[in-house]
Amino acid sequence: MSSNFTVESCSVDSEEGVKLHTRVFKPRNEGEEVSDDGNLVIVLVHPFSLLGGCQALLKGIASELASKGFKAVTFDTRGAGKSTGRATLTGFAEVKDVVAVCRWLCQNVGAHRILLVGSSAGAPIAGSAVDQVEQVVGYVSLGYPFGLMASILFGRHHKAILSSPKPKLFVMGTQDGFTSVSQLKKKLKSAVGRTETHLIEGVSHFQMEGPEYDSQVTDIICNFISSL
């Protein structure tokens, strides 16, 4: 793909002395950034570190967002990829990493508005950070694991995102495997504020994480941004 974006790697300091390996994807011509959204940055949070999740899984979506004129950021949470520290089972320490990256972007990249996007187990982690950063203006989850087994690990994250007044979009394949469509709908009944769902017919959890759905997911994210 002829690259109409650039990628810069940097290290972001999180709590407990953790250093987060971070990549900033920018449109090549900064002047061509999308209309008034020049100060919007999309921060992508990767799937479960302990199952091998790392920022590389989000490279496709970040690249496509940058190609469309948006700044997008991926990073390895603690203990994943090249980041230091240790991954946790329930993802609560990782929430601090999301917050640290958002604050770093506000200070160093002039991010006035941030959209948090979490993939799989990254969705509960990102969801718990939404109300901890005032610059976050919205949230997109890609395959939030609301199902019973996943809730043993991530159940304590649910309340934070469901009780947030910020606009939320839940994207899920109808054959997710971790969460059924009825479980998703039931869970979102308690959500406050603007809450939307986008179901991708016949797609499983790990299929949606795969590169063949990057373009579709990118378009869904862009549509949500234009509605904010």
Structural features:
alpha/beta; globular; Rossmann fold; 8-stranded mixed beta sheet; 228 residues
Concise overview:
The chain is α/β, with parallel strands linked by helices and about 230 residues long. About 30% of the residues lie in helices and about 25% in strands.
Give a written overview of the molecule.
It is a single chain. With 228 residues, the protein is of the alpha/beta class. The chain has a single domain (5-226), classed as 3-Layer(aba) Sandwich (Rossmann fold), CATH 3.40.50. Helices cover 32% and strands 27% of the residues. It has helices at 59-67, 92-108, 122-129, 148-154, 158-162, 181-188, 205-209, 214-227, and strands at residues 5-13, 19-27, 40-45, 71-75, 113-119, 136-142, 168-175, 195-204. It has an 8-stranded mixed sheet with strand order 1-2-4-3-5-6-7-8. α2 (92-108) crosses α3 (122-129). The longest helix is centred in the middle third of the chain and has 17 residues, at 92-108. The chain is globular and about 45 Å long. Residues 16-108 form the Xaa-Pro dipeptidyl-peptidase-like domain. This is Xaa-Pro dipeptidyl-peptidase-like domain-containing protein. One of its GO terms (molecular function) is hydrolase activity. It holds the Pfam family Peptidase_S15.
Beta strand count: 8
Major pleated sheet: 8 strands, mixed
SSE string, helices as H and strands as E: EEEHEHEHEHHEHEHH
Which radius of gyration do the C-alpha atoms yield? 16 Å
Question: How far is it from the N-terminal to the C-terminal residue, by CA?
Answer: 30 Å
CATH topology: Rossmann fold
Domain tally: 1
CATH class term? Alpha Beta
Widest beta sheet: strand line-up:
1-2-4-3-5-6-7-8
Provide the residue-averaged pLDDT.
94
* Proportion of residues in helical segments: 25-40%
Tell me the CATH architecture.
3-Layer(aba) Sandwich
* Global outline: globular
Number of helices: 8
- Counting helices, strands and paired strands, the structural category is alpha/beta
What is the CATH superfamily?
A: Alpha/Beta hydrolase fold, catalytic domain
Tell me the strand percentage band: 25-35%
Given as residue ranges, the uncertain stretches (5+ residues, pLDDT < 50) are none
